[in-house]
Design goal:
Length: 239
């Protein structure tokens, strides 16, 4: 049977263990830039993949630092499923909230929560942090998302997380090429700063079909967001 393609992306505050969790899930270190290695933080988007029964999951790992929020936004436009990450020893922090707001803005409906670094918290702490997460998610599409206790250090919860991704009813119905990116609205994402014609010149042949459609649109200009490139075209081609 053909595996279904889904993009899962991380979200959450810096140092909460996003990149470590992706590595624990896939064996892939998404921090590939020398500067990321030197500073020990994620700067640009990182990519990994995970084959699960029935699904081929592409993973996008985003930076949690507030300075790199544009990169996070760029990655998040391609998410089908968000993996919101909150560290047990730090709980909900500013970029946990900010990234959640971005997920809401992009109308991403599917998600899970990983409570990371559980090796650093006792059961009372974990319970309190889970309560804070539930409070944060109240009223959002992620209100009933599963919260999985994990530790990239001990391996706790990694198998359970894979199982939850595989068996979630929430996205099970999706066909192999279902339309992702319904949430992308040109006027919202692209500010009238750069003539679209210029951007079109740089498009890869793959995107030319969509470029034709864009040409007919009124708001055919691009924002100055450095990342809007390939990912958004890929997502928008599916509109
Ligand atoms: N004790 C413990 N430390 C962790 C765990 N996951 C990540 N870390 C550490 O937390 C720091 C930040 O992790 P990283 O994955 O880079 O966080 P990110 O900024 O959210 O991507 C690193 O020093 C990791 O070694 C965990 O499960 N347990
Ligand atoms: Mg990281």
């Amino acid at each position: 049977m053909l595996k279904r393609d889904l993009i899962l992306g991380t979200a959450g505050h810096i140092d909460h263990g996003k990149t470590s969790l992706v590595k624990a899930l896939t064996g892939i270190d998404c921090d590939r830039l020398p500067e990321e290695k030197a500073r020990g933080i994620t700067i640009d988007l990182g990519f990994a993949n995970l084959d699960l029964p029935g699904y081929r999951i592409g993973i996008i790992d985003v930076p949690g630092h507030e300075k790199f929020i544009k990169n996070m936004l760029a990655g998040a436009t391609g998410f089908d499923i968000a993996l919101l990450i909150v560290a047990a020893d730090d709980s909900v922090m500013p970029q946990t909230r900010e990234h959640l707001e971005i997920l809401k803005f992009l109308k991403i409906k599917h998600g899970l929560v990983a409570l990371t670094k559980c090796d650093l918290g006792d059961s009372d702490t974990l319970e309190v942090v889970e309560m804070e997460i539930r409070e944060l998610l109240e009223g959002s599409a992620f209100e009933n998302a599963p919260i999985i206790q994990t530790s990239a250090t001990t391996g706790k919860g990694i198998a359970e997380l894979k199982t939850k991704i595989t068996h979630s009813k929430s996205w099970k119905w999706k066909s192999a090429n279902y339309s992702r990116g319904q949430h992308l609205k040109m006027p919202q994402l692209f500010k009238p700063q750069q003539p679209l014609a210029k951007v079109l010149l740089n498009l890869k042949p793959k995107s030319q079909r969509f470029a034709q459609v864009l040409k007919q649109k009124k708001n055919s200009t691009f924002s100055d967001c450095p990342l809007i490139g390939h990912l958004q075209f890929t997502a928008m081609e599916r509109l």
